[in-house]
Write a structure and sequence with these properties.
Layout (H helix, E strand, L loop, with lengths): L4 H11 L5 H7 L8 H11 L35 H6 L5 H9 L1 H4 L13 H14 L6
Helix pairs in contact: 1-2, 2-5, 3-7, 5-7
Length: 139
Amino acid sequence: MFRFLPLLLVSLCACSPSQEPESAVAVLANTGEPDLSRGEILSLACQACHTLDEGQGNLLGPNLYGVFGRVSASSGDFAYSNALRAAQIVWTPEALDQWLGNPREFLPGNNMAFAGYSSAADRRDLIAFLLHKTGGTGD
C-alpha cells in the first residue's frame, strides 16, 4: 500500500502553496524507499511528548496533526519557546529533516529535549510516517 508514497508526497507538495515539490523529493524519494513500519516505531520517541491524531491535545510538546505546511509556533494553544516563535519556519519535509537531525543545533534556544536522529534513513522513514499520520499538507 505504501510503495507509491514518494509519488503521493510529490503530488501533495505540488498542491500546497506553502511547500515546494522539491522538498519531499529531496528528503524522501532521493534517499530510497521509505519504510512506514519503521517510521511508526521511530515515532514512539515523538509520542513521548507529542500527540499525532487530529483533535488530540498537547502534551509536553504540541499536537503534530497538520504540522506540514504550518509555520512554527503557530498553534495558538501551546506555549512555544521564543526561539521557535521568532524562527517562522515552514514545516516542510526538508525543514523537518534538518530539525530532526539535531534540534538544538538547527534552532538554538528551542525547548525540545530530543537529541535528534543522526541516520538519514531514520529521518526519512519517520518523516514519511508523519506525513501519512498527520494529514500530510498541514492546516
